[in-house]
Amino acid sequence: MPPSLPVVPSRFDRLQSWMDDEQLDCTILIGNDHATHFSGYARYFGGPSALVIGRDRSRTLVVMQDEVAAATEGSAADAVVGFGERGFGFDLNPVARLVSEVSAQPLVAGAQRFGIASEIGGADASIARLTSGTAVDASAAVARIRLVKDPDELRRIRASYDLCWSAQSAVGERAATGTSEIELFSLAQSTAQIGAGRPIEFICDLLAGTATADVCCPVHVAGTRAVADGDAIIADIVVRSDGYWGDTAETHAVGANAEMADIRAELLRILARAGERLVPGATGAAIFAEIEQAIVSSFPGGTLPHHAGHGLGLGCFEDPHLIPTDSMPLEAGMVVAVEPGVYFPNRLGVRVENAFVVTYGGGVELREAGIA
Q: Where in the chain is the domain with CATH 3.90.230.10?
């Protein structure tokens, strides 16, 4: 049985505690990731948005006028307010109208002290100029809160992670002689997108043959090269759906490639041991050192020229990072993708990647975590 998932204070509890400490009347969060984080609203090609959270946890979501219906249906906000006029492309500075609407909200206009964090440069300063209350920078507090995921966030990450694995299966099944890298890249994207049932955000490294030694984009970008019998194929597939990211890496083979299969099997063992180290208090630097040492000792002549993992959530490459310089202690409830790889110049590269939830008993792989 895998370790049980940790029970941690919700992101709302953590924000409320910070607001109480700072004696704030409300917190203003400007930007689409902020809106997703605290209201659940995510919209493909959505306009700029903001969220006003009261000390009583009331949430007012501010979106472009054309998004009001979708935001009302697709968010957990208590109220949805539109700004601007209906139509697209007429207003070349919608942020100014967003700022004006946020500043006019009763919680903001009447606040003596308010927290504020913005993903849109200058919007926080504009609101501070338009209001009489004292602004308190909420950026560090909100960034810290984002690191630990609530159950609903884990479900969204898991859903995107599953889409990644569906795409990986499609690549493995279609990895046949004569298929081009760009065909496999496009197959991965279409498989994930059709599985989601709506447009997704998609990032992919797709490298075949000796190009697998080039590690990733931008060193090698999927092109028209046809794969050959015996080729290794690295597919690093990253998908965002419903506001949260999943990330996977797998190495497939066209036909038989015994060397690649042996390397992959050892990398999976290294990955599993690293997953066991994902406990509160451990650091990315220490886990990276263990992974790198295992790779160097297991594969003479091979190198690990990239990070060994990173956080997942609203970002696909967020804190914490498994790199030599990251001394941030892990916390229960973080989601970390572990990504060992080994590369032999001009010949072969192999990479695998799974995502884990940090628990007191070690990392739990997302597909084994009982997340519906």
A: 151-368
H-helix or E-strand spanning residue 245: strand 244-253
Give the Å distances, CA to CA, from 117 to 35, 59, 79, 136, 179: 11, 15, 20, 9, 47
Residue 81 tokens, joined: 């307010």
CA nearest neighbour of 143 among 355, 319, 333, 330: 319
Q: In this structure, what token pair is assigned to residue 158? A: 């898991």
pLDDT of 361: 96
CA 236 vs. chain centroid, Å, equals 14
Contact 123, 100 (CB under 8 A): no
Q: Which residues of 71-89 are buried (b: 16+ CB within 10 A; e: fewer)?
A: beebbebeebbbbbeeeee
* Contact predicate 34/116, CB 8 Å: no
Of 82, 79, 77, residue with least CA distance to 67 = 82
The pTM score is: 0.97
Whether residue 217 contacts residue 306, with contact meaning beta carbons closer than 8 Å, is answered with no
DSSP string, 43-61: -TT----EEEEETT--EEE
Q: How far apart are alpha carbons 101 and 108 in whole angstroms?
A: 10
Residue 255 has pLDDT above 80, yes or no: yes
Judge contact between 91 and 84, C-beta under 8 A.
yes
| 60, 81 Cβ separation under 8 angstroms | yes
**Which architecture characterizes domain 11-147 according to CATH?**
3-Layer(aba) Sandwich (3.40)
- Joined together, the tokens standing for residue 150 give 């609530």
Does 23 score more than 70 pLDDT?
Answer: yes
Digit-coded pLDDT (tens) for 24-37: 999 999 999 999 99
CATH number of the 151-368 domain: 3.90.230.10
Distance CA 34, CA 50 (A): 7
| Torsion angle, alpha carbons of 149, 362, 364, 356, to 10 | 60
What is the pLDDT at residue 1? Answer: 60
- Residue 274's H or E segment, with its range, is helix 258-276
Please name which of 226, 228, 151, 237 lies closest in space to residue 192, comparing C-alpha atoms: 237
Rounded average pLDDT over 68-73 = 98
